[in-house]
Amino acid sequence: MTHSIKFWAVVPAAGVGKRMNADRPKQYLDLAGQxxxxxxxxxxxxxxxxxxxxxxxxxxxxxxxxxxxxxHEKIIRAKGGxxxxxxxxxxxxxxxxxxxxxxxxxxxxxxxxCITSEDIHHLxxxxxxxxxxxxxxxPSADTxxxxxxxxxxxxxxxxxxxxxxxxxxxxxxxxxxALELAVxxxxxxxxxxxxxxxxxQPKIVEGRPDNIKxxxxxxxxxxxxxMEQQQ
Length: 231
Ligand code: CTP
Ligand code: MG
Description:
Elements: E1 7-12, E2 30-31, E3 34-35, H1 36-46, E4 53-57, E5 75-79, H2 84-94, E6 104-107, H3 117-127, E7 133-139, E8 145-148, E9 151-155, E10 162-171, H4 172-182, H5 191-197, E11 203-206, H6 218-230
Parallel strand pairs: 1-4, 1-6, 4-5, 7-11
Antiparallel strand pairs: 2-3, 6-10, 7-10, 8-9
């Protein structure tokens, strides 16, 4: 029996934002009058493609329930996990009764509030007929060095190096089983790496450079600038 393929979003938002060094997790910092996570979620909802958006929130989080978006009909709260991969897996588990194995899931960092509908649809249109799926990525602009201590021991061939962004888009069933098999493996820092561990070769789709991840304090001003440019 066939069914119509659905699209789901999973948003890991249970990090503490250590590198941001702020008084609260970075997803709750103000960016142009709204929190970072509100921008992110409203942009995902605005893409108008997702059956639901599962958001992984830490159990100790006092901020989430204060947000209007928390009660949006398409938003589902999931339990945050120890590592990013645990949070993503928890998000997948909350939709297990609704999602089919061949539905698509787009995993997107809460900390990337500048995501555009254009990039979301570009990723989907590029991969919807693919067997495996893939990720938004950007070619590396800098020359990259292999370093031991302070010493450069090699230069990487930049033409083969891409920076992995999100969303990362995979089939529900294969993403869930790849992450379940990868639990506790520190090398799994994104969804693609879990699929790679299964011997699969996810595709890259070139994304927009303004889809930055807020990581350090100076990134907030940069995100603000990009949002102004996008208007
Ligand atoms: N994340 C998560 N659960 C974790 C760790 C991270 O859901 N246990 C989420 C973060 O909230 C963020 C995304 O994964 O939206 C990307 O992670 P990162 O940028 O590393 O955020 P933090 O882990 O919060 O930041 P830091 O590494 O500086 O502590
Ligand atoms: Mg982190």
